[in-house]
Structures
1.
Amino acid sequence: MQSSNHRLRDMDQHHPLLSAGADVETGSLAAAGVMVGGPHACHAGGNRTLWFIQDSCGMVCAGMTWFLVLYAEFVVNFVMLLPSKNFWYSLLNGATFNSLAVLALASHLRTMLSDPGAVPKGNATKEYMESLQLKPGEVIYKCPKCCSIKPERAHHCSICKRCIRKMDHHCPWVNNCVGEKNQRFFVLFTMYISLISAHALGLSGMHFFTCIKVQWNECSDFSPGVSVLLLIFLCLEAILFLTFTAVMFGTQLHSICNDETRGLNVLQEIERLKNEKPTWERRMRWDGMRAVFGGSPSLLWCNPFTGLRLRRLLLLTHGRRGGSEFSV
C-alpha cells in the first residue's frame, strides 16, 4: 500500500481501517463474482468478466446513440450519395463517412463493454488486511458501499455500484463510467462522432446547394418534402452532436494532458484547505497521453480495435448473468 508520505485522505465516504479486524458484510465475497481486474482480486484465478451495466437510463441512451448514428448513415447514403450522378464524389465521401461511423460505433462498444477500472468488490476482509503487512502509521480506506479497499484517486459510482480507479464521470450515452481502463475509447468515440457530424453538415450543405440549381426530383429518390425533412433533422442532429462531442473531446484531452481526475481534484482541495504540501506530482503532457493510449504516438492511438480478441469476447458472451454486470 501507500507509504506514510502518501497516506490516502478523503472527505465523507472514506472510513479508515485502523485494524485488520474490520467487519465485512455477509455475502460480500459471493457478490464479488463480477470482479474484474486488480492484482488482489478475490475471485477464482482466470475468471473473466464481460462488463455491462444493467441501467435502464444508460441502455436507452446507448440505444439512442446507435439509432442516431445509423439514421445519419441512412440519410447520407440513400438521400445524398447514392442518387448523385458523380461517381467519385459518392465513392470517396461514402467510404470516408461510413469508415468514420464504424470507428465511432466500435469506440462506443469498447467504452461500454470495457471495465473502466473497477476495484474488486468485497476485498476488505480480515485475511486480506493481514496479507497487506501494513507498517505502523500506514492508513488505508474502506468504501462502505461496496466493501472494498479504496485506492487513491478512486471514486464510488452509485450507478455502477463499484469504486472506479481514476474515475472521470459516469456517461449515460455509453452506459458506463469513464475511468482508467476505458478513457482511451471514450476519447476516440467523441472524436469520431464530432468528425462524422462535421462531415454530415458539409455534405448536407453541398446537397442543398446542388439541389437548388436543379429540380429536387433529380437530386434524390425521395420526394422533395421528405428529403428536406430528413436533411433538416440530420443537420440539427449533426450540430448538436458536433457541439457536445467537440467540447467533450477537448475537455478530455485537457484532463489527460494535465493529469486531472476527480479523485486528484478532491485530494488537492483537501490539501489546500489543510495547508498541506501536495502529495501528487503531475505528469508531463505526453506522459499522460502515453499512459492513456499506450506506447509512443502512432496511428494505433486512433484504432479502437487495438487489443481486441474476438475469440475471447465470443467466449465471454456465453457467460452467466450476475449482479449489475454480465459476468463469467
2.
Amino acid sequence: MLPGSIQITGEALSGAEIKDICDSLKENSVRLLSVRGCQLSDRDFGRVCRGVAESHSLAQLNLNLGVVSTIGRTKQLADALKANRSLQTLFLHGSPLLDAGLVTLNGALSTHPSLVSLDLGDCMLGDEAVRLICGMLPPDGAKSGLKELTLSANPAVSTQGWARLAIAVAHSSQLRVLNLDYNPLGDHIAGMLAVAVASSRTLEVLDLEGTGLTNQSAQVFLDMVENYPTSLRVLVLAENDISPELQQQISDLLSEGEEEEDKDGEARGRSVPPREKPAWVPHSITASKRLGQKGSTEIDITHALFRRDHFYL
C-alpha cells in the first residue's frame, strides 16, 4: 500500500476536515499534504502543525498562497518543524514572511535532518533572510543542505543580498536547482550568477525567467557554457530582452554537454540514466492562476499517486 496524499486548494476548511487531516498525519498514512490557498482558523492551523510534528511519514508539505499569514503561525510552524524528522520538501510560496519570519523559521529549517527542497518565492524577503538562507547551502558534504531552492519574486533583496547568495551557490556542495525568476536582477547580478554557475560542481538548473536581463547577460552565459566545464543542464531565460538566437545557442550547447557526459559514462562502462529536464513554469504566475479556479479537493489516503514535481527523493 502506497503512502497517501491530501491535496486541497483554495477552500475554507471546516473543523471536521481538519480533524480528518490531523488523524491521518498521526496515523502516518500521509506522505504529501497540500492545503495551498486554504482558509483555516488559527486554532485549526495549530492542530495541523501538531499533526506535522507527530508525523513520521510526511515528506512534502505545501502551505503556499498565504496559509502562513501571521508571525504567530510562523512560530507554530517552526515548532512543528523542530519536532518533525521526515519532511523533505516545504512550499511556502506567497506567504508574507518578511525577514522576521525567516528569522523565526531559521533554526528549524537549518537543522532539519531531511529537508532538501524549499520554496520561499514571493515571501517578501530581504537581505537578512537571504543571509540566513545561505547558511542552508553548506560548502561541504559534512552537513545536510538544500538541493532545490526557490526565491522567485522577492524584489526587496538588494544587490548585496544576491551577491551573498551567488557566493554561497558557488561553494554549495549539494544545490542542484535554483529558481530566481521574476526578481529584478539585471545584467550585473546575472554576471555574478554566471561566475557562481561556473564554479559550482552541482548546480544543474537555473531559472532566470523575467529577471530584466539583456543580450549582455546572455553573451556571458554563452561564453561560459562554450568555454568552461559546467554541471548546468537547464538555463531558463524566457521573458527577458534576449534574442531567441542567443537563447537557442545556449540551449544547444547545454544539450551537447549533456550528450557528451552520457557518452563518457557509457565509455567507462557505467550506465548513465537519462536526465529529466523539468518543464519550468513561473510559480508567481501559475499560483494565482490556479487559485483563480474553483477550489478543489483531492483526498485519497490509500492509493493516491505521489507527485514528484519539485521533489527529490
3.
Amino acid sequence: MVGLTEAIAIGRTFAALKDYQIDGNKEMLALGTMNIVGSMTSCYVGTGSMSRSAVNYMAGCKTAISNVVMAIVVMLTLLLVTPLFKYTPNAILASIIINAVVSLVDYETAYLIWKVDKMDFMALLGAFFGVVFASVEYGLLIAVAISLGKILLQVTRPRTALLGNLPRTTIYTNVEQYPEATKVPGVMIVRVDSAIYFTNSNYVKERILRWLRDEEEQQQEQKLSKTEFLIVELSPVTDIDTSGIHALEELLKALEKRKIQLILANPGPAVIQKLRSAKFTELIGDDKIFLSVDDAVKKFAPKSALNV
C-alpha cells in the first residue's frame, strides 16, 4: 500500500513537470505484475524511487529504456567496478541526490497551499519532515493520516448556515457571506451543506437547536416576534441514512415542545425517497415540504415575505 502510494505520488510529480497524464489503474497493474514476477526470484518489493527518478529527470532521460540501461550499468558496476567505489565518501553520493532533488522543492506552491487551506499545508509539512527525518514511507503515512483526519473532521462537523433574503429578490443565502441579506421575522432558515449520516446527524441537530436558542435569547432581549417556523434547506444534502432521519424526528419533537413548525425545502430525490420510506413525510405532513425556501416563506409567512 505504501509502495503503491509512493509510486503514484512520484509519478504525478513528474507528470506535472513534464505535462503528461498517468493512469492510477495501470500504475497499480504494472507494480503488481512487477512484484509478482520479482517474487519468483526472491526480489525485494519494488516501487518508484524519488531520488533515482529525480536523477533520471535531471539527466534528461525520456523513456523507460533509461531504466534498462541503468540496470545493466548497475549490474556491471556491482560485478566489476565495485572495488573502485569502496572508498567513495557518502557525502559525495548524497550530494548527487540532493542536487537532483532540490529542484523539486516548490516554495510558491507551498505558500499557495498555506493561503488556501491550512490543513493541506499541515499535511504538506508532515510529509516533508517525515521524509527528511525518517523515510518516504513515514512521510506518506503522516500526510495520509492528516488528510484522513481532515476528512473525518469535515464529515463529523459539516458546514451549516443561517440564511437571509437578499433585498428585492427571491434568493436566500448565507447571512455571514452576504451581510445585506435580511432575516425573515418569525422564520428561522437553516441550510445543511453535507449529507446527513450517523457520523454527523447528532451534530446537525444540536447545531440547529443551538442556533434556535441563541435566536430566542436575542428575541427576548430586543423584544422581537418569536420564531414560529424553522425552514431547513436540504438542497446540498445529497443523501441521508436512518440515523439522520432519526435526528430529524428528534428535532421535530423538540420544535413541537417550543410550538415551532418544521418545514423542509428542496430535498433531493434520494433524500425524499428515504424520508417517504421511513414515513417521515407522513409525520411532518406533505404540506410542510416545498420546492424552494421562497415558496415556504410565501406560504407560512406571506406578510414577512412582503416586508423583506
4.
Amino acid sequence: SHPFTDFRLPTSMSLLKSAEAKILACLQNDVWSRFVTLPNQNRIWTLKVTNKSVRKHKDQAAQTPLVMVHGFGGGVGLWIRNLDALSCSRTVYAFDLLGFGRSSRPSFPSDASLAEEQFITSIEQWRQSLGLERMILLGHSLGGYLATSYTIQYPERVSHLILVDAWGFPERPQPQLQGSGGQGSEVKRVSPPRWVKALVSLFSFFNPLAIIRAAGPWGPGLVNRFRPDFKRKFEDLFDDDTMTQYIYHCNAQNPSGEVGFKAMSESLGWAKRPMVQRVHLLPPSMPVSMLYGALSWVESSTGNTVAQIRGKSPTSVMLIEEASHHVYADQPEEFNRVVESICNTVD
C-alpha cells in the first residue's frame, strides 16, 4: 500500500464515544442515551435525563420537558454541569445537532436559507420521532439562532424559548458616512487591525475548524492552547484533559455541521440572515428569555433590541455576572437557578 495512506488523524467516533462516556459518568441522575433515526436515515445522538429519586414518574412525565441545543463545535457533553440540576423536577433532553458531535454528518447546501432549513427540519423530525408534544426550548450560541428559527416555524411545539448568548441576531453595522454630506463625505469603515484581517481571510478560506484537523496529532494541544478556559471550566470534575479531548474529537471528524454554519455566516461571524429581522414572526404570546454572559463577546444590547421589536410580548433579558460566552459552564449554579426558575413559570 502507498506509504501515506496509513496516516490517520488521531480521532474516530470511538474515541469521541469514550471521551463522552467519561464525561457522562459524572451524572447522578438516570441517563438514557441512543441514536434517534430520522426518516432520511440520518441519526441524532440523544440524551434523556430523569431524576431517579422522583419515584412518582407520573409527576415528572407531566412536566413540560426541557430540550437543550448546544452551539457551534459543541455536543451534549458540554452540558455536564447542568443536566443533573435541571432534571430534578422535569425530563431534560440534549442532542448533538445534525452535523456535530456523534450525530450523522451529511453534506449541507451552500445557500444560507437551505442550510438553516436542513438544521430546522432535522430538529422537527427528531421531535416527531420522540413524540414530544411541547417543550421548553433552550439554545446556546448557534443553538439559540436555530432554536429561534425553529420556534418561528413550529410555535405550537414550544412553551418557552430560552436563548443563551445567542449567535446571529444583530445586523452587520453598515459603513458610516463621514463629513456633513457634501461632496467631501467619504465612506469610512471602522477598520479592524491588519492582523485581524489577515487572520479572518485565512479562516474564511477554511471551514472554521479545519485548522484543528490539519494539526493532526497536535490538534488536542492546539485546543488546549487556544481554549485553556475549557479545561479550567471543568477542572474540578476532571483532573486531566477529558474535556479538551471531547471538544477535539467532536471537531476533528469530517466537517458537516460547520459547513452548514459557514453557509449561514459572513466573515467575522455575522449571520447572513440576521435573526433580528425575523423575531417579529414569533407569536406575540411566545415567552422569550434571553440570557447573556456579562463578560461575553456577544452584545447583550441585542436582547434589548429584541424586547423593543416584540413590544408588549413577554421578553426578558438577563445578564449573568462573571460569565463569558459559555455561560452554562462559567457560572453553572447561577445559570441552573435562572433556567430552573424560567422552567417553573411554564409548569
